[in-house]
Amino acid sequence: xxxxxxxxxxxxxxxxxxxxxxxxxxxxxxxxxxxxxxxxxxxxxxxxxxxxxxxxxxxxxxxxxxxxxxxxxxxxxxxxxxxxxxxxxxxxxxx
Length: 95
Description:
8% strand, mainly alpha
């Protein structure tokens, strides 16, 4: 998806326009993500990679829902959507 957007857009830069979050990101990448997470327009992430992060300025969250076993994946879908919460009161409550 990122490559397709880059083909159609003059400028689409990592850590400026978008960030990628997945389970295998380095410590350096985590620092860069924390520095720019409030400014990027698009966040690509996996559910496991996004744990512990929130995006306070998120206005839209798109989630790909597999057409099979939705009941099995429902909690993961909810957790991914919850990443957009971005409210200090909500972020620091018991989950």
